[in-house]
Design a protein that fits this description.
Distance between the termini: 23 Å
Strand content: 15-25%
Largest sheet: 5 strands, mixed
Shape: globular
Radius of gyration: 16 Å
Order of helices and strands: EHHEHEHEEEEEHEH
Length: 181
């Protein structure tokens, strides 16, 4: 089983389709679904960190049900108009913020980029979306958005990227603290 992350699909969003260079919303939606399904397998965990869709609830459900994997959502700012039943009908878990353990590592998931998070001063990871690659990365924080990576990113790649970075001492608790969880 592999754990995957992505965000900011903006399915059905005409302006995003134009910005991304697609001829139509349908072309963009198909491209996103296909890029996800080319990687994510049915038994994999797939965390989508918000801003799912700008289309109707029915069309959103139809599109999301095409995705492979055990789906989890961390809601974004453009997901507030969806009722809970929509999320419950597609996702294993629904939250606004969550922490998961992947291969022994604490991973803090939020749609929004954070300056500090639990155990950030000990090297835990923070994955987010929202900024579409426009925010400078810092420490062990990573934008997993579809616009940044072009497809979902698996935990092995997340680890390869973030393990090369030093943890940022924004919330460092002194010289006796060790990088541990």
């Amino acid at each position: 089983m592999t754990t995957w992350f992505s965000s900011d699909f903006h399915l059905g969003h005409k302006k995003m389709a134009e910005v991304r260079g697609f001829k139509s919303v349908e072309e963009m939606d198909i491209s996103i679904i296909e890029s996800c399904n080319a990687l994510v397998k049915p038994g994999d965990d797939f965390y989508i960190l918000g801003d799912l869709s700008f289309t109707t609830p029915g069309k959103t459900i139809d599109l999301l049900r095409e995705l492979r994997g055990r789906l989890h959502v961390v809601r974004g700012n453009h997901d507030r108009h969806f009722k809970q039943w929509l999320f419950d009908s597609v996702f294993q878990t629904v939250s606004d913020f969550t922490e998961v353990r992947v291969e022994g590592k604490t991973v803090v998931l939020c749609h929004y980029p954070l300056a500090v998070w639990r155990n950030s001063h000990w090297g835990s990871y923070h994955l987010h979306g929202h900024s579409h690659g426009s925010l400078a990365e810092r420490g062990k924080r990573l934008d997993v958005g579809i616009d940044v990576h072009g497809a979902p990113i698996d935990f092995a790649k997340v680890r390869a990227i973030l393990d090369k970075r030093p943890f940022h001492k924004e919330d460092y608790h002194g010289p006796d603290m060790k990088e541990e969880e």
